């Protein structure tokens, strides 16, 4: 009797990315294990919002992956027995001022040129679509449901796991990895030491998101992902205050520091790096966000953040002043400086793969990332060129 | 940002007595409570208290409440009512939704050198078919309705649970003019003091032991019109074929309480599960300091007990907070505390008290073994 275990491939991390990767590998026929230090969806995937859109992505590869992933969500929703609350839902990027509208129009034009369906709407159309929104807004960038959906991130992780188990996935929750053994000569992956015993495998995929650097360290890899905190407020159940997912165009600024655009906001909102966004959930609670701050792995909500989100949210939806906040939560997003995830193998360690660093796009990009990773492992070309996501870029 | 020496959260018996001690010692003390009135559960306790004169024996609960409130004011304690602590945030910042005189609320941020968490306990619910039907409520809610708001929750009441809360509230509901149809107790014996049970039985109310509720029945208007009960076996499982239906319009649940841990958790205090104390409790030392420096606990939020023990624990926490800030010398604080501790020991006699005392002692031992020195508030 031995407790040693053998797998074709071991996936580390059971968030949206890890469970999707595990699903795609198991489906491909690999004997797959999923290792998680907590429970399924206990990290960023349960401390985020629920939306998958293309309009928060830069034109080019980012958007292309986003759209492919959104299309894929629709397919998975039909195939899966496990309901992850897939809901096509339009998205409005609201512009406070004329210059914001002009910048958004430029962005819209670039996306239209690539064939994506989005369009600019004026303030009149905006208030027809969203009767409760402030009347003094300049307009908005509208993305139709084809390119904007909502899913339940928790359920998504459980759905991938459930469906993967049909293909033989074995999961190890509350698993602590103490060591990853590499071959003395070839440096290739050989096994992992865990509280479940030794797990033998020739391949591992590091899907640990914001915690990927810790897994990297076990084999001396330096993975440049940093935890970036985001906070959301949850409201009491309310009648529908909005019909679409609502975001402010300034959100782009908090996401991409390169877009240099100054809003007229209070010092509190500025300091807290607030980007208003609003969506309703299936249970008719509102999720109100959000912001991005570097605070290490501390996911306690800060009172200044709560105040600043409220202040900003009431600017766009004054009626929020009469709705109670019942809970707040924060989580870390796996931030990479160039805002692109890492999805590739690792040259220095044969059999080592990374799928991590999606920052706020992990839920949205999880289906396509899993698919790509299965293709990379199988040695097949991916649907389109993702060499920009290679870990090599940090060499 | 507002600064205070001592912030006491919860103005029940433990919070009030903590604030009085801290205020008397000279600490700039703020007492915050979300209710209209200070006094917590005391204001619905119309019965006379047991215990010694130090514990106001023979005085009715609500009178003790008024007395403490006056003492707190005399001690210079600032009191904010209808004010809710919405969280304890990084940096030791406390968010308070402060109730203003004009009925509006204002969100204020406050930093206190020490915090005493005295948030009490909340009632446990048990789940059965129809448990969310209007008319099913906690026994504490029914007690508030009759004793504080002077409103009968209904006409015909079935009480689930025969602990002291179930027994006393049943009697008070009868005093208010309700008909208590029956008490159900899943255990083979009545849980509370026999003196209370005898009062109920004398009034002709049956107490069914080894029997529980399995379903709340709803009438045409959607609210409770009766309940189905069943005998339970040794493992508390309903025995098929023993079902009986009782007619009632209210079902009250007196099925235990658990310490309210929300703020303790937010403050980062180490917790430990102690069944006899009601569930997870913050571990603390003899000074009632938690694993976080400057954060103290008192009353039911350290383990569900009685108002008497809450009063004394509150005093200890108030003294310790004042000592922490240098308003009371260590020698004086030690002497004051040891007097209260010996009084608490004598209070914690009897079958219920001794179990809790043992559990509290075990918890304080755990503290000295695992925490040793409380960590700085971050």
TrEMBL record, chain B:
The lineage of its organism: Bacteria, Bacillati, Bacillota, Clostridia, Lachnospirales. It comes from Candidatus Weimeria bifida. GO terms for molecular function: oxidoreductase activity. Residues 4-314 form the FAD/NAD(P)-binding domain. SUPFAM superfamilies: FAD/NAD(P)-binding domain. Keywords: Oxidoreductase. The keyword Oxidoreductase applies. InterPro entries: FAD/NAD-bd_sf, FAD/NAD-binding_dom, Metab_Enz_Cyan_OpOx_G3PDH. It comes from the Bacteria. The keyword Oxidoreductase applies. This is FAD-binding protein.
């Amino acid at each position: 009797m031995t407790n040693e275990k053998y797998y074709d491939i071991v996936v580390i991390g059971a968030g949206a990315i890890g469970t999707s990767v595990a699903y795609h590998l198991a489906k491909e026929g690999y004997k797959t294990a999923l290792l998680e230090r907590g429970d399924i969806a206990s990290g960023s995937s349960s401390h985020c919002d629920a939306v998958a859109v293309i309009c928060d992505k830069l034109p080019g590869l980012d958007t292309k992956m986003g759209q492919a992933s959104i299309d894929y969500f629709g397919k998975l929703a039909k195939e899966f027995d496990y309901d992850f609350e897939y809901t096509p839902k339009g998205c409005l990027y609201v512009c406070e001022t004329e210059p914001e509208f002009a910048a958004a129009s430029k962005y819209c034009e670039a996306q239209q040129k690539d064939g994506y369906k989005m369009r600019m709407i004026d303030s009149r159309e905006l208030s027809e679509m969203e009767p409760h929104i402030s009347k003094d807004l300049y307009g908005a960038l509208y993305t139709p449901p084809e390119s904007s959906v909502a899913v339940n991130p928790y359920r998504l992780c459980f759905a991938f796991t459930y469906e993967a188990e049909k293909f033989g996935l074995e999961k190890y929750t509350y698993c602590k990895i103490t060591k990853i053994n590499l071959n003395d000569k070839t440096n290739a992956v050989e096994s992992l030491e865990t509280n479940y015993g030794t797990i033998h495998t020739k391949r591992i995929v590091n899907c640990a998101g914001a915690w990927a650097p810790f897994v990297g360290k076990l084999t001396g890899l330096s993975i440049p992902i940093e935890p970036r905190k985001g906070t959301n407020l949850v409201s009491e159940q309310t009648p529908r205050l909005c019909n679409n997912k609502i975001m402010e165009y300034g959100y782009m600024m908090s996401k991409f520091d390169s877009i240099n655009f100054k809003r007229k906001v209070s010092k509190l909102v500025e300091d807290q790096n607030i980007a208003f966004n609003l969506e309703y959930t299936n249970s008719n609670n509102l999720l109100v966000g959000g912001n991005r701050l570097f605070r290490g792995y501390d996911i306690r909500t800060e009172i200044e953040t709560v105040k600043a989100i409220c202040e900003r949210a009431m600017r766009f939806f004054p009626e929020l002043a009469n709705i109670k906040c019942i809970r707040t939560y924060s989580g870390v997003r796996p931030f990479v400086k160039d805002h692109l995830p890492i999805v590739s193998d690792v040259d220095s360690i044969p059999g080592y793969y990374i799928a991590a660093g999606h920052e706020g796009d992990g839920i949205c990009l999880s289906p396509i990332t899993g698919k790509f990773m299965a293709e990379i492992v199988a040695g097949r070309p991916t649907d389109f060129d993702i060499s920009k996501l290679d870990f090599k870029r940090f060499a | 940002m507002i600064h205070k020496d001592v912030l006491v959260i919860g103005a029940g018996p433990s919070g009030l007595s903590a604030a009085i001690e801290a205020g008397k010692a000279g600490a700039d003390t703020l007492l915050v409570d979300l209710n209209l009135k200070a006094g917590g559960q005391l204001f619905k306790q119309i019965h006379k208290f047991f215990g010694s004169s130090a514990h106001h024996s023979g005085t009715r609960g609500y009178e003790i409440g008024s007395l403490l409130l006056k003492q707190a004011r005399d001690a210079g304690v600032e009191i904010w009512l209808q004010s809710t602590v919405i969280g304890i945030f990084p940096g030791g910042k406390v968010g308070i939704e402060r109730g203003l005189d004009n009925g509006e609320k204002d969100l204020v941020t406050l930093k206190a050198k020490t915090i005493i968490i005295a948030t009490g306990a909340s009632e446990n619910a048990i789940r059965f078919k129809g448990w969310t039907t209007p008319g099913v409520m906690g026994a504490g809610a029914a007690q508030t309705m009759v004793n504080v708001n002077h409103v009968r929750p209904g006409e015909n009441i079935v009480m689930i649970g025969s602990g002291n809360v179930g027994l006393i509230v049943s009697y008070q509901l009868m005093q208010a003019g309700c008909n208590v149809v029956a008490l159900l107790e899943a255990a083979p014996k009545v849980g509370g003091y026999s003196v209370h049970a005898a009062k109920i039985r004398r009034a002709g109310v049956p107490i069914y032991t080894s029997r529980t509720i399995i379903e709340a029945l709803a009438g045409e208007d959607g609210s409770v019109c009766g309940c189905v009960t069943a005998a339970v076996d040794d493992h508390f499982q309903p025995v098929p074929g023993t079902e009986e239906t009782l007619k009632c319009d209210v079902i009250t649940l007196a099925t235990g309480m658990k310490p309210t841990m929300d703020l303790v958790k937010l403050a980062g205090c180490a917790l430990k599960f102690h069944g006899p104390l009601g569930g997870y409790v913050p571990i603390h030392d003899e000074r009632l300091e938690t694993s976080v420096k400057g954060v103290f606990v008192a009353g039911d939020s350290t383990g569900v007990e009685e108002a008497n023990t809450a009063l004394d624990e509150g005093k200890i926490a108030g003294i310790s907070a004042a000592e922490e800030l240098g308003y009371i010398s260590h020698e004086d604080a030690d002497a004051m505390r040891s007097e209260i501790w010996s009084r608490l020991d004598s209070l914690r006699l009897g079958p219920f008290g001794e179990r809790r005392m043992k559990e509290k002692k075990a918890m304080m031992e755990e503290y000295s073994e695992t925490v040793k020195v409380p960590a700085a508030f971050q």
